[in-house]
Amino acid sequence: MRNVINWFEIYTTDFDRAKKFYSTVFNCKLTDVPMKSDRHTQMQYATFLDSEDKSGFNGALVKIEEAKPGMGGTLIYFASEDINEELSRVEAAGGKIIRPKLDTGAFGFIALIADTEGNMIRLRSAL
């Protein structure tokens, strides 16, 4: 059975601040993608890529007039080798730890954080 999730978007109000937060917490590079539109709305887009061959879960940070960030929307889980590593960088990157590391038994560990844009995301690791 194929995985039906193939892309996600995290909305931002301060695009550069959000890029800095995610690249710092997850120690990853985001790639700016120029977007062409027939509309007058400015759109900024930067992608997360799961691997060099672009397989797996992929998504983007997005700044667009029609969509605003915030708590209570879709919850995205970010995979982690050791959840303590990402948690140690959250507050220094301008985010907030909402629920610290929680042992979920056979499902590993989870934590709930807020990014600099007010979006809530979940971390999940085996450690």
UniProtKB/TrEMBL annotation:
SUPFAM superfamilies: Glyoxalase/Bleomycin resistance protein/Dihydroxybiphenyl dioxygenase. Signal peptide: none annotated. Gene3D superfamilies: 2,3-Dihydroxybiphenyl 1,2-Dioxygenase, domain 1. InterPro entries: Anthracycline_SecMetBiosynth (IPR052164), Glyas_Bleomycin-R_OHBP_Dase (IPR029068), Glyas_Fos-R_dOase_dom (IPR004360), VOC_core (IPR037523). Residues 4-126 form the VOC domain. It holds the Pfam family Glyoxalase. CDD domains: SgaA_N_like. PROSITE patterns: VOC. This is VOC domain-containing protein. The lineage of its organism: Bacteria, Pseudomonadati, Bacteroidota, Chitinophagia, Chitinophagales.
